[in-house]
Amino acid sequence: MNDDQENKQQLIDGLNADLAREYQAIIAYVNYSQVIKGAEYMTIAKELEKHAGEELSHALQIAKQIDYLGGSPTVTPEPVKTSKKAKDMLQFDLDNELVTIAHYRRRIRQAEMLGEYALCEILREIVTQEQEHAIDLATALGIDVPAIPKLDGEE
Ligand SMILES: [Fe+2]
Ligand SMILES: [Fe+2]
Questions:
Q1: Closest C-alpha to 93, from 153, 143, 152, 155
Q2: What gap in Å lies between CA 155 and CA 150, rounded to an integer?
Q3: pLDDT recorded at residue 1
Q4: pTM, whole model, 2 decimals?
């Protein structure tokens, strides 16, 4: 494989990891929005339900892009944690959103390097929604949005 092919394969593999995280997010939001208990959490429960739909839309867009690039979209989600505590569920979601944002930022750089500008636009819109999800979750937890984690190999 030449450099271009290798970079394209890396982009496809990265998008498939993103897709696995989108599936994880769909499952988590479907589950948590229905099982979360407590009067003080009813507003965020509705919000989580909305997130579930947005994550499905992200998954469809990412799968379409993987197919367009010649890859095959994964069918396997990242594992989903469960808890009976509302706070834990919101924290799991927040942690995952931050990791997701870090990965999408990297993916945008990769797509840019390959001149895949339409993909960049799609990823930018998705990452904007992920940031909104993180804000909703942090607000429900009564905290500021934490820093975006560093990925392996990043300064
Ligand atoms: Fe998403
Ligand atoms: Fe999200």
A1: 143
A2: 7
A3: 79
A4: 0.97
Low-confidence ranges of the chain (pLDDT < 50): none
Q: Give the integer Cα–Cα distance in Å for 108 and 57.
A: 18
1 C-alpha to center of ligand 1: Å? 31
SS3 assignment for 26-84: HHHHHHHHHHCCCHHHHHHHHHHHHHHHHHHHHHHHHHHHHHHCCCCCCCCCCCCCCCC
CA of 1 to the centre of ligand 2 (A): 34
Instruction: Please tell me the predicted confidence (pLDDT) of residue 53.
Output: 98
Cα-based distances in Å from 107 to 20, 104, 115, 125: 14, 5, 12, 13
CA of 10 to the centre of ligand 2 (A): 23
Q: How far is the CA of 127 from the centre of ligand 1 (A)?
A: 8
Ligand (nearest to CA of 57) = 1
How many CB atoms within 10 Å of residue 111? 23
> Yes or no: is domain 3-141 CATH 1.20.1260.10?
yes
